[in-house]
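Work Package 4 report. The design task specified in the project plan requires that, given a folded chain encoded as structure tokens, an amino acid be chosen for each position. We show below one input record used in the internal validation round.
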């Protein structure tokens, strides 16, 4: 506990820090207004140059900017000016852009009014203050109107649109509205508000086109109480709620000072902190997401009235780049493909309520898809056949769901659509067979074609992948020999690493006599540190082919940098290295149980609980490499042979020799094929850019192997296919048919733990999706495996009911 004196000093510190944050905008104005300001009589127009005013540094501009979706229109806005795509951070007329070819005038008039007028002189926007002496666009991105004595009369930071910036403070009752779409700056369907009544920072969905929000919040800090609340976006990148002399952090990420960053409430209702390139090296790359709030919006947002996250008759799922994607169920299509929030319409005529009207109707099965607030009737007990017939004969029944003897009939309009993941739900969507053949959504046809291709080409794929792997492996070795030698300025590769002589390691391994394993780039030997009184066991990896020093040096330094700067329970620890003449060796902690390959597929495989912990450990280690390291690391060769197991059965990821390191501003890298047959992600064969999602795919394969204690390419269950199925295909088939127990036939503990078995299988299937964007991040994989977030039905599974 703090002493009374410590408590007083802490309170004084927080008060001084808050005072600084709350006064910095005024101080910035005093410092900068004389340098760059907009004085009485100044006018801007979209027709004549200049069309904007710059901040002193030139980072921001205020004025007329061509509308991103229609260059014949202009927005009155503040934007990042040194960025090629001119990212807008504040907009005065998002719902009413002006015609760029007409003479609209933005003027600071002698009477102190700052206003935008149309060609007829009619005022169409003003900030609502008089006696303005001058205006300025500051280096913080804040547009400020000031009186002659320097008093701030109005500032854009107090009236945000969809973005907040470093240095910005939100007062109670301040609202941040998402724009309607990426290219439509109209106030949209979601709002973030610091409530005046209780100080809670809350996100709501909005009854568009009004600004009224529905009463059900889908995200909140739940920090409430009497007194004054404020949201503070620090220059370092963190975002805090300040209340009662305490900063409550809601976004903790620190962004490097040489990067631009912002936080936006995006059109999909998710709040994202984003950053972009070094300031002195602007590029056209997109903004990179650093941290998110309300990323589980699909499952958390449920409105008693309104359509939910997506439009009527549609459903919500997480799509590309972890953004919300609104989709139509089978036999439905979007009312407006450009404005999907308007919802979906059936591609068939409504069912007649006359006798026999049901004769041309049938059901499409899409497991676990639910519209929870569209229930019209609930029957119990009732079997599935009776449930189908009941909905079929009811002309008002659009969908029915069946679970454990319960039948739920659902009526139009269908709202709050999403996948239900806590229980297994059989969803039957009613449609007319008369028009179904010509009205199938384009996506379904594509998925059906993909399925036919996958089944017919499985043998060719496996054969081709073997040949391609061998060819690329040879090419990789050749390429590596030509790369430039990498050195650190100090000659050391990481903190607390020991430098060994070759003789020391030769003695420790008894002349490299006991081999533990062999890989593409070297052999691992067991050894004992003679210099250590406890006789600590070590594993020494001796890198081979050292006659090509340049290439080997690159591999050596990569592995040193990669492992030496990491520290995690589920990563093999690097103890030291040897860099002497042409000898390059790495010294690791010894793992008594060897590789997971031997441990998992041997005669005494681990029990179910042990396998669960092993899977979780590997997932946590990968999440650390992808998202928590100082430098992101893509392993590129996740397989059982590269997972080691210690005395306590803790799984640890090893062999970072193939890892590709990315700088903070990078998200993708192109390189030759790396990895092992059976664990390859499909993009290796498509000459596509490689992302961390290749590790997600490999982990998905490994997870299924851990579940079943069987290898992906060594599965002998007969599903009637002419092609021998892989473990991935068998898992999908077992999941679709509700026979997951076939995967663990001889494991009673796994079969008893049916809920977790299903969850792990669903996660595995989600990880091995064909398209990288459809796979979850490793952070989400960990959360789903732990059960802290729901697991959505693996994408594309419903198409296989056709």
């Amino acid at each position: 506990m703090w002493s009374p004196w410590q408590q007083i000093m802490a309170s004084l510190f927080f008060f001084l820090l808050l005072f600084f944050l709350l006064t910095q905008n005024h101080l910035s104005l005093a410092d900068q207004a004389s340098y760059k300001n907009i004085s009485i009589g100044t006018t801007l127009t979209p027709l004549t140059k200049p069309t904007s005013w710059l901040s002193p540094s030139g980072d921001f501009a205020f004025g007329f900017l061509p509308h991103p979706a229609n260059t014949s229109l202009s927005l009155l806005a503040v934007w990042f000016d040194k960025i090629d795509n001119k990212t807008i951070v504040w907009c005065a007329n998002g719902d009413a852009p002006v015609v760029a070819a007409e003479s609209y005038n933005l003027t600071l008039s002698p009477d102190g009014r700052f206003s935008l007028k149309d060609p007829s002189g009619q005022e169409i926007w003003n900030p609502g203050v008089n006696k303005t002496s001058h205006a300025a666009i500051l280096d913080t991105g804040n547009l400020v109107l000031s009186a002659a004595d320097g008093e701030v009369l109005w500032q854009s930071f107090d009236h945000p649109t969809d973005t907040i910036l470093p240095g910005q403070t939100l007062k109670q009752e301040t609202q941040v509205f998402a724009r309607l779409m990426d290219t439509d700056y109209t106030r949209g369907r979601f709002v973030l508000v610091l409530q005046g009544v209780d100080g809670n920072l809350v996100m709501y969905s909005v009854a568009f086109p009004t600004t009224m929000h529905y009463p059900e919040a889908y995200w909140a800090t739940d920090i409430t109480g009497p007194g004054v609340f404020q949201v503070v976006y620090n220059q370092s990148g963190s975002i805090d709620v300040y209340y009662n002399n305490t900063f409550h952090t809601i976004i903790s990420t620190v962004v490097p000072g040489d990067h631009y960053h912002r936080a936006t409430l995006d059109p999909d209702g998710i709040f994202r902190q984003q950053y972009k390139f070094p300031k002195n090296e602007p590029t056209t790359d997109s903004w990179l997401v650093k941290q998110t709030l309300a990323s589980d919006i699909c499952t958390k947002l449920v409105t008693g009235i309104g359509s939910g996250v997506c439009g009527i008759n549609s459903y919500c799922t997480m799509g590309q780049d972890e953004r919300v994607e609104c989709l139509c169920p089978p036999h439905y299509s979007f009312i407006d493909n450009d404005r999907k929030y308007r919802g979906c319409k059936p591609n068939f005529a409504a069912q007649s309520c006359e006798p026999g009207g049901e004769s041309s109707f049938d059901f499409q099965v899409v497991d676990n898809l639910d519209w929870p607030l569209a229930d019209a009737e609930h029957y119990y007990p009732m079997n599935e056949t009776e449930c189908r017939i009941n909905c079929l004969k009811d002309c008002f029944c659009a969908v029915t769901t069946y679970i454990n003897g319960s039948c739920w009939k659902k009526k139009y309009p269908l709202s709050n659509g999403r996948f239900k993941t806590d229980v297994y739900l059989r969803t039957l969507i009613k449609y007319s067979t008369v028009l179904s053949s010509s009205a199938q959504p384009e996506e379904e046809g594509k998925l059906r074609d993909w399925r036919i291709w996958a089944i017919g080409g499985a043998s060719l794929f496996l054969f081709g992948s073997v040949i391609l792997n061998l060819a690329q492996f040879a090419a990789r070795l050749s390429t590596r020999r030509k790369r430039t030698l990498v050195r650190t300025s100090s000659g050391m590769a990481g903190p607390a690493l020991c430098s060994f002589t070759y003789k020391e390691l030769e003695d420790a391994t008894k002349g490299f006599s006991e081999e533990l394993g062999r890989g593409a780039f070297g052999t691992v030997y067991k050894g004992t540190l003679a210099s250590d009184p406890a006789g600590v066991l070590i594993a020494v990896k001796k890198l081979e082919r050292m006659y090509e020093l340049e290439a080997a040096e690159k591999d050596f330094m990569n592995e040193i940098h990669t492992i030496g700067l990491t520290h995690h329970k589920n990563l093999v620890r690097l103890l030291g290295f040897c860099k002497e003449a042409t000898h390059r060796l790495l010294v690791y902690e010894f793992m008594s149980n060897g590789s997971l390959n031997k441990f998992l597929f041997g005669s005494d495989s681990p029990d179910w609980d042990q396998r669960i912990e092993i899977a979780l450990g590997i997932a946590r280690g990968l999440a650390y490499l992808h998202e928590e390291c100082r430098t992101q690391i893509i392993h590129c060769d996740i397989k059982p042979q590269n997972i080691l197991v210690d005395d306590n059965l803790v799984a640890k990821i090893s062999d970072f020799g193939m890892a590709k390191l990315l700088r903070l501003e990078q998200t993708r890298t192109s390189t030759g094929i790396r990895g092992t047959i059976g664990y390859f992600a499909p993009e290796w064969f498509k000459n596509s850019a490689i992302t961390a999602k290749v590790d997600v795919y490999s982990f998905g394969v490994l997870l299924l192997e851990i579940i079943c204690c069987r290898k992906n390419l060594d599965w002998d269950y007969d599903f009637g296919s002419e092609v021998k199925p892989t473990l991935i295909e068998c898992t999908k088939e077992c999941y679709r048919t509700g026979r997951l127990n076939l995967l663990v036939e001889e494991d009673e503990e796994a079969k008893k733990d049916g809920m977790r078995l299903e969850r792990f299988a669903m996660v595995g299937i989600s990880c091995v999706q064909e398209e990288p964007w459809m796979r979850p991040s490793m952070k989400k994989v960990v959360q789903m495996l732990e059960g802290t977030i729901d697991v959505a039905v693996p994408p594309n599974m419903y198409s296989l009911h056709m």
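Confidence is low (pLDDT under 50) at residues 5-36, 436-495, 657-675, 798-802. Validation will be extended to a larger panel in the next phase.
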